[in-house]
Amino acid sequence: MASPMARHWMPGGPVKAIRVHDRGSPGANRDRCREAWSRHGASLVPQIEDVVGGDRELDGVFVCCGKNGDDLPLIAKLAKLLRRDGANPFICHMSTVSAGFAEAANSFCARQGVDYVNYPLTGGPIGAEKATMLILASGSAEVYERLHHALSKLGTPKYFGKSPSAATEVKLMGQAMVFNGLIGICSAAALHSECFQDGQLGGIEQSEFFDFLNAGAGGTRQWDVILSSGIRNDIWDAPFLSSYGAIDAIYTAKCGLDRGLSALAIRPLIDVALAFSYVLNQIGPSLATHAIVREMVKQRARELDQFIGAHSGPANDLQVCIERCVKSLPIDLQAKVAIGVREEDFDRV
């Protein structure tokens, strides 16, 4: 999501990227991103410590990497490296994390004399390429004013007040819309398959049917931007991976629980996270969120329902349900979720 910044922040523009952390992952797309940053004039460095180096004039660092478990050590290290008297460098964290992470990171960084803000992005890879993303901002008003011009080159920034977690919560509101819309359109597609296609998904007739029906009162963008790629073009590994979807759904459910929402708002998010978990456990990490529709048709629904039932937890204890949902994920993803981040966790890095 962040790599197109190299093109949008043109030389001579509002941002001069000095160094970019290059984790060395292979791939043609990653090579194109490296070339773009090099053309921008940035040096590619192999260690997170090299990003800051000994540069005492550095204004701040932009981070857009992963989830709570991935980014906690990065934020902790960067804050300690940036720490200096009187300068107040910033960390602009553009990953989607939990609301608790944003609060804890803000408190920790403030003790280091670093201004931390979490500005999650929404709009997907296409929005990043076209510079049409929504950039959700909150926290320090001074940092927002300082970064607004640069952010405007990437999309449309909007400020939601001084709370360190407000922008994070807005992002999770968007995820609630996404996941409920996804379940709605996938349920309709599964039902259409059973009613009209003898249980088969895909094909031009089904695609044309939902192009028509999605224009009605029940329409959702999840048909246009997600499910249509599977039904129309048999693409099930893009654009939004199930591993990211599962974690974001868990963060959204936890946010709703912490804010005292009805179980009617929270339970569907836990169930969709469990559906993503089923796909991850039974099929593998490469499938996107809309692949759950293939497990919802009559022929395959029983196994999906059994998995969700086995990992759901007691209906009257949503906190336990969320914890069991996390434990249902593959072990590497459980570490990424890190749902209970506290300020002292940053001190331990």
Kindly describe this structure:
With 349 residues, the protein is mostly helical. It has two domains: 5-168, NAD(P)-binding Rossmann-like Domain (Rossmann fold, 3-Layer(aba) Sandwich), CATH 3.40.50; 172-344, no CATH class. It has 16 helices and eight strands. It has a three-stranded parallel sheet with strand order 3-4-5. A three-stranded mixed sheet has the order 6-7-8. The chain is globular and about 65 Å long. It starts with a helix and ends with a helix.
Which residues form runs of ≥5 with pLDDT under 50? Answer: none
Averaged pLDDT:
95
Structural class from helices and strands? mainly alpha
- Total number of helices: 16
What is the H/E string? Answer: HEHEHEHEHEEHEHEHHHHHHHHH
**Number of strand elements:** 8
- Please state roughly what percent of the residues sit in beta strands, choosing from under 5%, 5-15%, 15-25%, 25-35%, 35-45% or over 45%: 5-15%
- CA-to-CA gap between the ends? 26 Å
Oligomer: single chain
Please tell me how large the radius of gyration is. 21 Å
Shape: globular
Fraction of residues in H or I helices:
55-70%
Instruction: Please list the strands of the largest sheet in the order they lie side by side.
Output: 3-4-5
Main sheet: strands, sense, barrel: 3 strands, parallel
Number of domains: 2
